[in-house]
Amino acid sequence: MVNEHRSGPVRSTAAREAILDATARLFHNQGYDRLTIEGIAKEAGVGKQTIYRWWPSRGALIGECLAEGRLIPVDFVVPYTGDLSGDVEAWLRSVLAILDEPQGGALLRSLVAAATEDAGVGQHLGESLGVEEHLGSRLRAGIRDGQLAEDAPVAQIGRAILGAIIVESLGREKRDSEGVVRLARFLFAR
Amino acid sequence: MVNEHRSGPVRSTAAREAILDATARLFHNQGYDRLTIEGIAKEAGVGKQTIYRWWPSRGALIGECLAEGRLIPVDFVVPYTGDLSGDVEAWLRSVLAILDEPQGGALLRSLVAAATEDAGVGQHLGESLGVEEHLGSRLRAGIRDGQLAEDAPVAQIGRAILGAIIVESLGREKRDSEGVVRLARFLFAR
Amino acid sequence: MVNEHRSGPVRSTAAREAILDATARLFHNQGYDRLTIEGIAKEAGVGKQTIYRWWPSRGALIGECLAEGRLIPVDFVVPYTGDLSGDVEAWLRSVLAILDEPQGGALLRSLVAAATEDAGVGQHLGESLGVEEHLGSRLRAGIRDGQLAEDAPVAQIGRAILGAIIVESLGREKRDSEGVVRLARFLFAR
Amino acid sequence: MVNEHRSGPVRSTAAREAILDATARLFHNQGYDRLTIEGIAKEAGVGKQTIYRWWPSRGALIGECLAEGRLIPVDFVVPYTGDLSGDVEAWLRSVLAILDEPQGGALLRSLVAAATEDAGVGQHLGESLGVEEHLGSRLRAGIRDGQLAEDAPVAQIGRAILGAIIVESLGREKRDSEGVVRLARFLFAR
DNA sequence: GTGTAACCGAGACGGTACGTCCAGTCTTAAG
DNA sequence: CTTAAGACTGGACGTACCGTCTCGGTTACAC
Lengths: 190, 190, 190, 190
Known about the structure:
mainly alpha, Arc Repressor Mutant, subunit A, 2 domains, DNA-binding, TetR_C (chains A, B, C, D), DNA-binding (chains A, B, C, D), TetR/AcrR family transcriptional regulator (chains A, B, C, D), transcription (chains A, B, C, D)
């Protein structure tokens, strides 16, 4: 028989909140590469150890912020009107809206930088944007509706769209929403 | 026409070579985030200042290595047999071969990390893999041959394929060449 | 009366001790101009920042070593036997003994070098040798005893003796204790 | 029969002049510790090698400037009116005038710093101020005139006066010409 | 109630790397 | 053969953060 309880105070939600808040704020203002644990601790009014106690790394912090929608929204749903191409396009435009913000490109690159460093961020990135869950469901519905080939590689298509956006951003090309939209139309044109 | 030359010693090719060599070696062995200017200088047997004299940043160094094919090959040609899907697939497999090397995934993520930090690397990354030049040409030939729609977004398709590979790697999914190959087949199946 | 303390870790006496020890050791072995903060840190097994946290400069470090008698002794007392000239001579010989050590001249020049760079060292230098406190007192006693003129410039006389030693050392003249002793005798001969 | 001539240009007096000029200028403006060979070369419009070719060290440069009166005047003569104390005092005031200049104290300390590093500067320093030549002669004349004891340690007295000035400056005491003057009067009062 | 164990803020610690400055040597082209 | 220019290796600078540790103080459960 083990005693699961222990004495002492529990984790402070105020500290947790302050840390994640500070992380998100600094991530937006300075980008991932200038983000430091010390900076977060000072900004949050928290001791460094409190951060190290609960998160193993800078990347894990970003991962948690990402999962809670503190960096980018998390409700990228895909409508279902019956028009596959149009539905995907609607979702795509909501994703691209992030990039049209003033520092949108830098924000995406920072997220990618975090993802290269931390496996969790990489996994969360697609999820956050609804690539797997929402987009995947919609595409599978499209297959059922006969609008997409039976053997269409659903997961790969999602990655392709997201990846095209990322590659474009890495190349620092002038933002061109229409480019990616045309890609989507091409994908579902038959 | 004036004489642009000045007197005095000239840039040492030996030092340049040693620096780029050391950079490529360390990049492969340790990845981008553990790559330090001091480490490169020591490995190359060179003073730090010699690096700072000629390259403004770590990213610029990687960019130059990339452009000279010191990190990954630069001759990713796309054959032209008349079979569009097959030709693209051949190119794709040669690109994916990089990832099948022991540390292939980490190598790609390191390249992406460098690209998030340095604009030049981002621009060179696609070029190095022949996405724009070779793949683009082949796709345009496909359009001429009637195998691809007149208005197919050539550049976007290239980015989509490369992007799918990157996103997969960021997610640390088990390497699955067939996935991306199926994406390519889907793209050109008609 | 407020509590001046704050929470958190307290200054490490072990580090302080190691740093001052290393400073004194290196100062003796290499002289002031070859003394580096990095060398001290390595010798003391300490991070550079720990030195910069507590001392603003190399000179301040030397000043503290000097004040604590880690570079030269600090107990240069002047006896009082009634014989002014003899008493001063006794003190003088104990000071000159430093110069008769193997690297005595270099040591004095190093101290002077530190004093040119750091005001604190300059002030401590005379104090350390007892010029102001002990020698000054003895001279004032000499005035009371009628062995020295009422208006003898006590402080200046101390500086003159110390200064003669320094100037001789700066000129790299062969060490000649008797020269300075003769100066002292001349000063108090009447 | 040897041919004393050799081909090529001889040592450029213009370069020599420019270097010593620049050295003196920078020495006055920045002090000895901030004086760098590179700075001198740039200020003089000269290659670094030209400096290293003719002077072995920074100290040697200062020594030569000092010897040529480029740092402080070199004509500190001692008058001979018959009044020993008054004559010495006249000389002393002309020396002290240097210290009353705006950056006089710093200048003296810089000279001392150079002297701690370079034997030549140390030897030249006293000479420059006329301590040995002029003051020594005057004191010896004083002995002949019966104003000074037969066995007065002439050289030591000179060093004592100069040394008192130096020690005072090292201690960053408020400049007080009268102090040293009182010392001189005390020395020759009988 | 009183321990006492885990929390918290603060920040000192040994380290690594940064990007800069300068030392002293070497290399080039011009005179 | 000297010169101006400046690239080279190398060492030290003073700063920023890393991740660990050590404090004094504060909960809040277990006795």
